[in-house]
Amino acid sequence: DKEGKIIGGNSSDRAFLSIITKDYLLEDDSVERDAEILFTSTLKFSAVTVSVNQNQVLMSLPKHFTRDGTVTLIKGAPEKLIPSCDHYYGINGQLCSFSYHSSINLEVDSLSHSGIRVIALASSLDKLDTENKTLPQHLTLIGLIGLRDEIRNESKGAITLTRKAGIQVVMITGDKKETAISIAREVGLLPEATVAAEEGSDIHLPRNSVLTSEEIHRMGDEELLAIIPEVCVIARALPTDKSRLVGICQKLNKVVGMTGDGVNDAAALKLADVGFAMGSGTEMAKESADIVIMDDNFNSITRAILYGRTIFRSIRKFIIFQSTINVASTLIVFLGPFLGIDFPLTLIQLLWVNLVMDTLAALAFGGEPALMRYMYERPVRREESIVSPYMWSSFILGGTFIASLSIFCLINDNVWEMFRRTPQMEDSEVDKIFLTAFFGFYIFITTMNAWNVRTRKFNIFDNISKNPGFLVVLLLIFAVQVTFTYLGGSVLRTVPLTPYEWLIITIASFIIIPFDIIRKLMIAPWLPKRLIDTSAREAVEREEQEQEDKREFEALVNREKEKQKLILNKIKEKLRQEQEQQYQQKLSPLKKQRSKLSENKRTKSEQERGMGNEIVK
To answer: 31-37 and 45-52: which strand pairing?
Structure first.
């Protein structure tokens, strides 16, 4: 723009311009574009023919850089441009013969092993063939530019977590194979190298873990189907490769997610079950995708998976909750007339039950927290029913228990007598109170069942602090039911109840909780092993064991370091003592000599004093 800020283009183009000073970017060199070939994954280069109209600019360029003010500039893959280069520019811009193809290729490979993407820059005096889109025959090498995409700190952890979730992660890139392997190792897709980079980056890699576009094209669909579960990296990929891989994975009945940011990725994003477009990508890619990742961060995809699994579990919880109510109400209404009770629940009351439970209960389960342990569970298969065997056992047994308990209360005279407030009260009045209490009991016991539904664990308070809305909704249901019991009147067939009667109803409704705990204990052994999902527990236990092993190893290393430190200190102390002894040994003759000299001096002084005294005498 006018301020010299780089806008538009892709990340590579912006990186190129970032090495140019702001003042130079703002200069107008009156350069006209005559012809252009845009970059594609098939061509692996882009080129433009330009005309320079200012003589001052032409004078500043190397002597053989242009022909009549016209030059073709090319950038692209080194393996595409370097074979066509027969000259290069020296330090002072002089044209030199180029014969270092093998040396340059070795240097490019060395940089690629380090995860650096190398792009070659060249020029030519020939004009572009825009029809056939071919390179000029004679190129002059300008130089090589290395680009490195910095790995986000959280990327490795996000990919590791995604793989623990049972999701296969494949990196599809247009970079060289060596560059792709280096980056894949950095993010944890491939094991760390055990040999020096110059000896080969693909040595000791898992079988079929790294493929190139050329290798994929030589394979048939059946062959690719067999090895696709082993693939981790696909290098030098073309846009058509993405679409083909999506189709292959869908043939394996896998749910496929695909990322992309360019126009060429639109087809694959549309074909995939879930298309992820980058926020910095093209509008076509965003329109073709299902989800747009605004921060271009793989960690956002991991969070989307976690929230998706959480929502799926919340939907299942609501289905269990609502189906339990439906089973119970159906059995009560169906069996009631056979037991002499025409309308245990009226149509208005059933409508009220559905109205309250469908709305408020959905809000309660909609706020369930996204727990990290969900990422350790196996993915749900495409053909898997949303209603699992565990869910069937929950709402059929739970609904049957609520219906049986309700029918027991309806036909038991002792329960009926509990709501006779005075001995003189007429039976018709007792019936009204009893049916009102039964209606409240039915609402309360089905509401209390929400505690059982929200977790498969025996601890019904598991992570309840992370969903405070659940408590609010349950209290709201109780409050609404109590309020409309007093206000419902003839519409809801209710009469006011005393606090003692509300206490009886509330205490009785808690019985559903121990019943479901017993069901959880009894039903698990009868479920087929493949339907008992222990992967989360096993993964957590495995991770805890790994952490414990790591702590023990670190403690062992620290102890060894302390031992080595003590030994080193002892050695240092011993050396110091030896040096002190040696110093004292060297110093001892000097001390003796000095002492002798002092003694001689003192003796001589005494002799001189004695002679002086004799002379005085």
So the answer is: antiparallel
